[in-house]
């Protein structure tokens, strides 16, 4: 009996709305952020969609005029007009901001610590 992908997910997703831009080479798409986790994010697919799934993307999530979460991501899946990305690289400053954002939304420090431990084990 195989597990459903949601049952295997080790990282809690949080719904979050912030001005977000996805880019790859010369292309820059303003996108709608659906949710994010310590390991990646889910967005609505922009139109027109010209992204190359074989190449990495860059995402910039604007938390405020001065505060961003920036990461290099890879397309993991495309379903029902949504694109799921897995984080390939994130700066220490951005991961601290993301951790704080998730901490505020989880309201369970034990769960956050479990997710951080799982992130390190990957």
TrEMBL record:
InterPro entries: C-di-GMP_BP_PA4608 (IPR027021), PilZ_domain (IPR009875). It holds the Pfam family PilZ. The keyword Nucleotide-binding applies. The keyword Nucleotide-binding applies. Coiled coil: none annotated. GO terms for molecular function: cyclic-di-GMP binding. Keywords: c-di-GMP, Nucleotide-binding. Residues 7-103 form the PilZ domain. Binds the second messenger bis-(3'-5') cyclic dimeric guanosine monophosphate (c-di-GMP). Can bind two c-di-GMP molecules per monomer. May play a role in bacterial second-messenger regulated processes. Binding to c-di-GMP induces a conformational change of the C- and N-termini resulting in the exposure of a highly negative surface on one side of the protein to a possible effector protein. Monomer in both c-di-GMP-bound and free forms. This is Cyclic diguanosine monophosphate-binding protein.
């Amino acid at each position: 009996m195989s597990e459903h992908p949601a049952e295997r997910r080790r990282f809690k997703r949080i719904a979050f709305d912030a001005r977000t831009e996805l880019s790859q080479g010369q292309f820059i798409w303003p996108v709608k952020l659906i949710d994010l986790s310590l390991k990646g994010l889910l967005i609505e697919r922009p139109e027109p969609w010209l992204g190359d799934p074989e190449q990495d993307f860059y995402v910039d999530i604007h938390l405020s005029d001065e505060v961003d979460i920036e990461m290099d991501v890879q397309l993991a899946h495309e379903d029902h007009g949504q694109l799921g990305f897995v984080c390939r690289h994130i700066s220490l400053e951005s991961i601290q901001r993301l951790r704080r954002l998730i901490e505020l939304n989880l309201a369970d420090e034990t769960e956050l610590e479990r997710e951080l431990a799982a992130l390190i084990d990957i």
